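S1.2 Input.
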Amino acid sequence: MELLLIVSLVVALSYAFSCLIKSFLRRRDQCCYMLAYECYKPPEDTKLSTASCAQIVHRNKNLGLDEFRFLLKTIVSSGIGEETYCPKNVLEGREETPTLVDALAEMDEVIFTTLDNLFAKTKSFMSPSKIDILVVNVSLLSTAPSLTSRIVNRYKMRENVMSFNLSGMGCSASIVAIDLVQHLFKNHKNANAIVVSTESFGPNWYCGKEKSMMLSNCLFRSGGCSMLFTNNRSLKERAILQLKYLIRTHLGADDEAYQCCIQLEDDKGYQGFRLTKKLTKAASKALKLNLRVLVPKILPMREILRFSISNLRNKKRHSKTSGQSAMDQVSIGLNFRTGAEHFCIHPGGRAVIDGVGMSLGLSEFDLEPSRMALHRFGNTSAGGFWYVLGYMEAKKRLKRGDRILMMSFGAGFKCNNCLWEVMKNLEDVNVWEDCIDKYPPKTLVNPFMEKYSWINDDYLGFVRLER
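S1.3 Output.
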């Protein structure tokens, strides 16, 4: 009897130990490493200078004096410089009559250029035939065959490649795509994944006069990025980043949040993207809910305890902050630098960067990469993160062991944030190679203000008569 009990105990302990080992190995294989990324730099002949921007504005016959004033004011305060890039059909004056050929040509240029460069950079250990997972996110274009199929056909990928085409996910789609890859890695060992993030702007240029829909023309610019990921631990030494945490928040059930950032047609039938004044409120609410989950994972316990004690002691004082904006009140008092050394805020616009920076108590040094990416490349939608990351790398800020907090907002309304750990010192000048030494400039002088601040009602009236 005693022998039977001993044998049973040994078997039970062996089984438990085996389960623990399997669990450990399973978790170990669920890692997500970024091996490389490649941002798109459009050709020089698509650069949107101050003059070309003015020409595009002037030829919109639907604009009146009030709309001209609004556009000038918006462009001047946008934080965008005059070295951003625009779709060819818009520069050529065909924004009102885009074709499917234009749309596909725009996508092929971004996607194939970045993928060609990515595979060239990693040719010593990676090739298209080794890709197991392919995810493409383009919110405003869905073709048949899909964009992923165009990539599979171009690079002759394997017949069992898992492809996913994401649309309608907005500016935070890049994080959504990475989350999908991370979940697939949990069930596929030693897998390699490609994520392509860009946006179709050419066929979606707004040609009407509604102010809330004209904003997108002022902010969005051509760009994109292709990224290579793996959970193969034998490639860990080649990794540049490791994903530590990723939290997604979705406010689609809230009608106000759902409507604040939406694609539709105006009363004249012009299709565009409407950004309402409720966007800031939706962003602050989504960010607050997201941080409730993310903060305990990324901040040390001592900082959370310090904040909790301080918050209790100053309850009375905090109750008097009702005059602050919703964004200001998201995380008063928490020191986010105890959980991350770098902050990669989606360069969606100056108001977004300022709001998140004030909310998290960040310095101008922390916000510099996002501000510079917005100034140089504009809002490139889901690809914007990687221009910010590229700036940090080109400035040699990223050292092994550093942590990067990425924060994004998108239509829906969504807030998707994640934390990365830097795996090695990063120093590639990448897409910033030709201009990194000029950034940051001493002052971000807006070229539109310099060249068009003299515009008055008499001039606008003359332009209207001319047209």
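S1.4 Remarks. The two ends are 102 Å apart (CA to CA).
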